[in-house]
Automatic annotation (TrEMBL):
Keywords: Adaptive immunity, Immunity, Immunoglobulin, Signal. The lineage of its organism: Eukaryota, Metazoa, Chordata, Craniata, Vertebrata. This is Ig-like domain-containing protein. Residues 1-19 form the signal peptide. GO terms for cellular component: extracellular region; immunoglobulin complex. Gene3D superfamilies: Immunoglobulins.
Amino acid sequence: MRFLGLLLCLVAVLQGVLSQVQLKESGPGLITPSQTLSLTCSVSGFSITDSGYCWHWIRQHSGKGLVWIGGICSGGSTNYSPTFKSRISITRDTSKNEFSLHLGSVTTEDTALYYCARHSQGSSM
């Protein structure tokens, strides 16, 4: 849980004035149950292929803690939470410097705020 708290702080810092790296999420506001949720995170000020970093998706239900969904690292390898592994895909488009979350067969339980974040591969998760 400590890692997830740090990720939220990282998202806030990345969008702040003190950092040139910015992450901007985009996607539909609402979808209906059983559809696939697709969100994209556009990165500026840093290349998603620069070694030593992974790019993650996390979510937060209203009034609850942060939950790590999965991530994709600079070399293209992915790592998914066992909770979502059967219905998740995280991809990247290096030409656009963005990465995307695809979460299939959504239900009302997937209603949450979704965040993207950068994480150094050298620091503990």
